[in-house]
Amino acid sequence: MFATYLIGLREGLEATLVVSILVAFLVKSQRRDRLPQVWAGVGLAVVLSVVFGSLIQYTSTSLLRTSESREFFEAVTSVAAVVFVTWMIFWMRRAARSIAGELRGKLTEALAVGSLAVAGMAFLAVVREGLETALIFYAAAESVAGGTGAGSLLALVGGIATAVVIGFLLYRSALKINLSRFFTWTGALLILVAAGILKYGVHDFQEAGVLPGLNNQAFDISATLDPNAWYGALLAGMFNITAAPTVLELIAWVAYAVPVLVLFLRKPAAPAKPPVAPATAAPTAAPVANTPTAAPAGNAPAESTATTPEPAAPAAVDAAAVPSPRA
Question: What pTM value is reported for the model?
């Protein structure tokens, strides 16, 4: 159930941050009259997300008659959930620094259009997180024992509730946390969760007859990793790590988890600085011996400040290089 709690916490905090940015912008802009439209858009997004999750559950339990079709449906949703998780964590890492400015800019444009535009902007900002949460929750809950039961649902709701509390405290400036570090750690954990979901999807494809090797086990460490022990249940519930995976399951888990973790945890490359153009705007000063230079008044002898050298004066050179001319 911790995996579903983590999903609710991560997705819920993203949605909460979006809403808090919109609300703070309206409050500071003295546009509190538009707050009802924001909450209407948020509420509609939540309702649509719940309906979408219920539709997925109804399709799996009622519309699909055979076990093979149900296994295939769960496999497809698992792969889709992995794609959404991967895209979401990398997008959040890239957009975390600019999301506030982008949202404020879009909301400014929406305010100029009207009330429906404000509600639509809030709806679109939240509905993506809600639909992702519904899909990922279904795939994660089905990949562990118990499925989408009451325990998994309560864990998801608990994660979302925790995210709402954190978002409210951040909005009130009563809580200071490093959001970059938070999203890094939760993103890494979600990658492992997604690897387990992918492993479960491969197993469902095998049970549906789409992929071979259902009985080809990579290893069996049931004597060491007891699935009935608390640590075995914890690993299976969080990351779908089981004692006797098939060869394809193990390949899928490793092939996804290792490279994605490496790409996610490495430090992003610093933006390339534009090349500095060579300083050619000002021409190089000609040698003093050929062209007399003008010096500021009062800082040089009179002959060096004259626009035209006197005929009797010798060629001007560096005073340190040769002795002074004789009178």
Answer: 0.67
